[in-house]
């Protein structure tokens, strides 16, 4: 970075947002909280039955704020450093600086920690005292907490959640150890500087919580707890980065989106716990009545997953494994509605049973089942990981989804095709409609993928899969040359969010550029301006496909009204309502750059690319793209595209990559380096 150039990955301010929901979050794949919030959440730990199930609130020992009462001319700075995954608060006076650093350890996922450092200025000798203010009380409305004996200087509580998700189901147990926080810390007159470290360990067994706390203490003694966390984040960024020569707000938005999304994924290698998916507001949110209670929606599979897959296929696999573990719940959902196979819930928590508090969505917004399978398809074609499908449950899930779609379709004698009736499309302003074009197209795609995998595995393809895929109705208006949203849709009717435009991307449903343009032009003016944040990203991708770059940019610019200052936390709706730390909107925004500017498309036989850069972007670098076990770096300018293989696949068959220019047919072998 040039001298004096602002670092797009560091967000600093002098005062905090007045709305506490817009505070920075510190999260790893297992623990999460908002800065200065009195609760934290544990992945997969929910309390409450069915539609009332929500992330269980655990009291947060890391909710601590420094203060120096009576001090004059104190300068205060609050900073979120996305490169190091660390939030800091600095109090600076002429006599001293006090620094508070807070983080959820990225690789030791059972640990959260904070430190306080007081450093005196030269020539001062008086003791310096900093007060620590905390609302912490070891009580929870969601867990029956009991006090255990202290362990290595830490206090200890443990307890079960109060109400299982399904009758007779398990109530998870949580164990927590934390370093007691004194009301104040003093740097004696004879010392120049001192740091104090405070640990919190959370796990679902006494053995694991004690092991994690002890490991933290060992690293504290070696002076390397925070540096090991920073090292893990540095490795994360080395393997995955999107940067560009262009406007600072765009670069900041990209770093912010990547930070919040990467905070949610499991660390590389064996993380030692089951991953429970990503909810729209992440682990830091999801208490009762907030951010959809921490449930997992299509937001994970459609909006967040493609970005994670392209950089970290291991983390993407963990997201799919969550869906595989929920398969029995999904089968039960289908049976209860009178269908075969597996119907994934609109809202999922710990069991895969439907936990949406409002019945209409669970009953009608069935495209979720196809959305889940599309994530499996993208993963299969990007990694060729047959083990997930053959041995780890993926093929069972694929077959169950195909079975569901066949049983959900009804034959229309009149139209001589299959219909899917009584659904709610992604546009939730309409319900009980027949033949939602998105739902039917995603069902068709599910069936085609299931048949492809069966052929790959030399398994006989059920005739009904082929028949239903070939003959399902995908509404199309031959006269106007566009896709009506559902049977009976009239152009001009208000639409809540991206729906038909998703046919072009991510569905890649076959259509001419004329039809793609017509879909964009029909739906753009009637889509709710203050609707969910991911919508405009998809219009941007559509215009980029058609090389209408400035038109795409005007759509993407609408997203900035969902990004709040100073920590780049997204709100679901531009009026500030809905979920906060809205990872769904961030996922859509990242896809507009990662799949829009580059033109990346995952197909059965290749990773296609066809870049289109706006005028104010001179260069785009995408580092760490994973394809068939290789790591690639793409550098795109207005004049050229460079592809570098930064790491080759371990499997010798996986490393035979080449770049092919479609128009000329030229082939360029790609070797490491």
Automatic annotation (TrEMBL):
Reactions that this protein is recorded to catalyse: (5R)-5-O-[alpha-D-glucosyl-(1->2)-beta-D-galactosyl]-5-hydroxy-L-lysyl-[collagen] + H2O = (5R)-5-O-(beta-D-galactosyl)-5-hydroxy-L-lysyl-[collagen] + D-glucose
GO biological process, one term: carbohydrate metabolic process
Catalytic EC class: hydrolase
Keyword Plastid annotated: no
EC number of the protein: 3.2.1.107
Family, per entry: Belongs to the glycosyl hydrolase 65 family.
Keywords carried by this UniProt record: Glycosidase, Hydrolase
InterPro entries: 6-hairpin_glycosidase_sf, 6hp_glycosidase-like_sf, Glyco_hydro_65_C, Glyco_hydro_65_M
UniProt domain Glycoside hydrolase family 65 C-terminal: residue ranges: 601-648
GO terms assigned for molecular function: protein-glucosylgalactosylhydroxylysine glucosidase activity
Claim: Membrane is one of the keywords in the record: no
Recorded name of the encoding gene: Pgghg
Record protein name field: Protein-glucosylgalactosylhydroxylysine glucosidase
UniProt organism field: Tricholaema leucomelas
GO cellular component terms listed in the entry, alphabetical order: cytosol
Pfam families from the UniProt entry: Glyco_hydro_65C, Glyco_hydro_65m
Record's function text: Catalyzes the hydrolysis of glucose from the disaccharide unit linked to hydroxylysine residues of collagen and collagen-like proteins.
Domain Glycoside hydrolase family 65 central catalytic stretches: 284-490
């Amino acid at each position: 970075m040039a001298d004096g150039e602002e670092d797009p990955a560091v967000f600093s301010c002098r005062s905090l947002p007045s709305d506490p929901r817009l505070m920075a979050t510190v999260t790893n794949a297992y623990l999460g909280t908002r800065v200065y919030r009195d609760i934290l959440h544990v992945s997969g730990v929910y309390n409450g039955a069915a539609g009332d199930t929500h992330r269980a609130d655990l009291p947060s020992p890391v909710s601590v704020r420094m203060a120096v009462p009576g001090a004059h001319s104190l300068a205060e700075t609050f900073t979120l450093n996305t490169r190091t995954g660390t939030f800091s608060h600095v109090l600076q006076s002429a006599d001293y600086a006090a620094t508070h650093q807070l983080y959820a350890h990225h690789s030791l996922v059972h640990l959260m920690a904070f430190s306080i450092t007081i450093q005196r200025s030269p020539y001062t000798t008086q003791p310096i005292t900093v007060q620590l203010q905390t609302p912490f009380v070891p009580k929870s409305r969601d867990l029956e907490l009991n006090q255990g004996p202290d362990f290595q200087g830490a206090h200890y509580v443990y307890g079960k959640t109060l109400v299982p998700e399904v009758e007779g189901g398990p109530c998870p147990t949580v164990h927590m150890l934390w370093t007691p926080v004194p009301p104040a810390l003093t740097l004696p007159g004879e010392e120049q500087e001192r740091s104090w470290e405070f640990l919190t360990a959370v796990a679902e067994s006494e053995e694991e919580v004690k092991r994690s706390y002890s490991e933290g203490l060992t690293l504290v003694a070696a002076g390397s707890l925070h540096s090991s966390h920073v090292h893990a984040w540095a490795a994360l960024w080395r393997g995955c980065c999107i940067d560009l020569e262009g406007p600072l707000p765009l670069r900041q938005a990209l770093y912010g989106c990547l930070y919040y999304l990467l905070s949610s994924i499991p660390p590389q290698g064996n993380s030692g716990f089951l991953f429970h998916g990503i909810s729209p507001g992440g682990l830091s949110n999801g208490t009762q009545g907030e951010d959809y209670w921490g449930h997992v929606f299509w937001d994970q599979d459609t909006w967040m997953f493609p970005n994670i897959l392209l950089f970290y296929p291991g983390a993407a696999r963990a997201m799919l494994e969550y869906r595989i573990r929920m398969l029995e719940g999904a089968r039960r959902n289908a049976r209860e509605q009178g269908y075969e196979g597996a119907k994934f819930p609109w809202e999922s928590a710990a069991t895969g049973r439907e936990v949406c508090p409002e019945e209409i969505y669970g009953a009608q917004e069935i495209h979720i089942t196809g959305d889940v399978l599309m994530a499996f398809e993208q993963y299969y074609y990007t990694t060729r990981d047959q083990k997930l499908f053959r041995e780890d449950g993926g093929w069972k899930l694929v077959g169950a989804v195909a079975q569901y779609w066949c049983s959900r379709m009804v034959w229309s004698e009149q139209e001589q095709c299959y219909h899917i009736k009584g659904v709610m499309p992604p546009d939730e302003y309409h319900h009980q409609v027949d033949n939602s074009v998105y739902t039917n197209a995603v069902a068709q795609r599910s069936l085609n993928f299931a048949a492809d995998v069966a052929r790959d595995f030399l398994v006989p393809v059920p005739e009904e899969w082929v028949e239903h895929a070939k003959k399902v109705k995908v509404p199309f208006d031959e006269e106007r040359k566009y896709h009506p949203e559902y049977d009976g849709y009239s152009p001009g009717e208000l639409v809540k969010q991206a729906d038909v435009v998703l046919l072009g991307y991510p569905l890649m449903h076959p259509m001419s550029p004329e039809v793609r343009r017509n879909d964009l032009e029909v739906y753009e003016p009637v889509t709710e301006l203050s609707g969910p944040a991911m919508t405009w990203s998809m219009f941007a991708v559509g215009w980029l496909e058609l090389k209408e770059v400035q038109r795409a940019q005007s759509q993407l610019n609408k997203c900035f009204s969902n990004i709040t200052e100073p920590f780049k936390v997204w709100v679901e709706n531009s009026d500030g309502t809905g979920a906060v730390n809205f990872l769904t909107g961030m996922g859509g925004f990242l896809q507009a750059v990662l799949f829009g500017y580059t033109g990346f498309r995952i197909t059965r036989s290749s990773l296609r690319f066809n870049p289109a850069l706006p005028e104010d972007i001179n260069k785009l670098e995408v580092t760490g793209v994973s394809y068939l076990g290789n790591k690639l770096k793409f550098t795109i300018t207005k004049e050229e595209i460079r592809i570098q293989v930064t790491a080759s696949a371990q499997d010798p068959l996986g490393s035979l990559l080449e770049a092919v220019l479609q128009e000329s047919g030229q082939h360029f072998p790609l070797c490491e380096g």
